[in-house]
Amino acid sequence: MRATSTGKQITSHIKPERPCLPIRAAWPLFLLERAGVEGSLPVMQPWTPWMILQNRLYYAAYYAVSALLIAYKIPAHSHDGNIQQFGLHFVKSGKVSRENGKLLRQLFTMRQTGDYSDRFDLVDDDVIPMIQPTEDFIESITTLAKEKLGIT
Questions:
Q1: Cβ pair 108, 79 in contact under 8 A
Q2: Residues 19-61 pLDDT 10s
Q3: How much is the pTM?
Q4: Among the listed ranges 52-61, 62-71, 103-112, 136-145, which one has the minimum average pLDDT value?
Q5: What pLDDT, on the 0 to 100 scale, is given for residue 144?
Q6: DSSP notation for the chain
Q7: How far, in Å, CA of 78 to CA of 85, rounded?
């Protein structure tokens, strides 16, 4: 219910199609859904230039890691902070493989170089081998986040 400018109460009789999620689960789930969409872009748009494609791979992984950190209530305030917290809490603890930690760092480095260096160009051999590992990475991170949130 909310009050109008005349003081009358308005009620809504609209029922949600699915049960409402606790607020702590809503944002991580949004990020996980976005990671899934971002991760599917390379398949949907094979004509995309390689630098853009690699950028989307990084952001898909970034959104998944952001959701995971939020699910575990681990603060991070930057891209590098996300990577550091991910390494500290998930790679070093063994919850996530060292290879996944290296993949995230590699995606970040390639994205940084691609975005800020005018003498750097990616080719298909740089990016194509990263698609499947990134999709696997997102799937494993999504599983961890949903387990923590109690969502199947």
A1: yes
A2: 444 445 566 666 777 766 565 555 545 545 778 888 889 999 9
A3: 0.72
A4: 52-61
A5: 96
A6: -EE-TTS-EE---PPPSSPPPPHHHHHHHHHHHHHHHHHHHHHH-TTS-HHHHHHHHHHHHHHHHHHHHHHTT----SHHHHHHHHIIIIITTTSS-HHHHHHHHHHHHHHHHHHH-TT----HHHHHHHHHHHHHHHHHHHHHHHHHHT--
A7: 10
